[in-house]
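Q: What would this chain look like folded?
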Amino acid sequence: MAENLSDSEDLKINKRKYRKLNEKGLTKGGLTISLILHQGIRSKDKQLIEDALTLNNKVIIDESIKDLDITECCDLFNEIIQKIQSNPMRLLQISNWFVSILEKIAKLTNINSKYNEKIIEYMGKFHEIIISRLSCNNDLINLQSILDLFLNITEENKIMNNLCETISTEANSALITHQIGNMMDDLVSEQSLVDSTDEDISDDAYNLSEDDNISKISSKSGDSEDE
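A: My prediction, written as structure tokens:
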């Protein structure tokens, strides 16, 4: 009971220490990460392991796992595999952990061959992850092709819309110009008609005036002859 209490207190102390040191501790040969990693593996605290895995500096990772035994390495390797299985995109985020733990296991399995089957099992899971990732990549490539085609069509439509808008604007301008021209022609025609009418009226008035003058002259001539 006392031992369990001590472990619990150590765990709390280590968590507090990790929170306080955080980045500062990570730069000191990986000691803080190593402490958290050991505690997480021993207590099977997934959050502590997750905190350790947030770092992907291989030098510090190698320093952090150098004292792990084969059992701890296998447990950590299995935890890493599970995290990648749940989210294949994490492979890049914890890639150095994966490489470092495999290198560590390779060194230890020479004298601990009884773990080979377990490691092969984990590698089988990793193989499935890779196949799934490749399939996902192929789907993404196909999706990218579709998106590229869609973007090209969209861009072409945008160009066509701009062209149509330009043509429409020019057509409207031409139509307005044509309408103004027609209006001016109509005004000119109306003015010509008015001028022509005025001339006709003037001519008629002149002719009437001439006729009156002729009549008056004729009348006077007749009167003179009578006398």
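The chain has a mean pLDDT of 73.
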